[in-house]
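Q: Joint fold for the lines below.
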Amino acid sequence: GNSVTQMEGPVTLSEEAFLTINCTYTATGYPSLFWYVQYPGEGLQLLLKATKADDKGSNKGFEATYRKETTSFHLEKGSVQVSDSAVYFCALIWSNYQLIWGAGTKLIIKP
Amino acid sequence: NAGVTQTPKFRVLKTGQSMTLLCAQDMNHEYMYWYRQDPGMGLRLIHYSVGEGTTAKGEVPDGYNVSRLKKQNFLLGLESAAPSQTSVYFCASSYGAGAIFYNEQFFGPGTRLTVL
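A: Joint structure:
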């Protein structure tokens, strides 16, 4: 069946460090891929998405590229800020509008 | 435009009590979802609805019931609460038609439920 695997957290970085959060997926066909972010005490919100192979999603300085050959959708940011501290979820959608979620990765940025 | 709202924000129940969580959306979305979020487990789908008057089971439906009598509302009921239902509950909605990859889900702020 379809599944999403994320790197375990928490990930702790200093401000201005480079961020990578790994996400790999298992799916039949060609799913669309998403990164959602959950700030403390809030619901989830869409960060970026990619709908086909080699697409790059980007938003707020974050990027992720849909790699079909490695079934990956790693999240990256060149210089993180304290305000990026949150939980990040990788997800895929294949059919019937249901999202398949990763377990989430908590990111802590220290000043 | 309030988006997705949930009531209540917090609730404490005793084992065996019942309650209903209300989700409302003002975006005219067809699809609505109820998730629970537990530490280290991400989001798990409880029930979902593809339109007014229809509901379907998700990954973890046992102990919950839902109703979608109006398009804008999706209710989640706990008939006899158990400590295992202590969790944060999120409601979401999406457009639900057309290309699936454009169907971003919009989330409410969550309800924190504790069952003693």
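Q: Anything notable?
A: Residues 46 and 81 of chain A are 19 Å apart (CA to CA). The longest strand of chain A covers residues 86-93.
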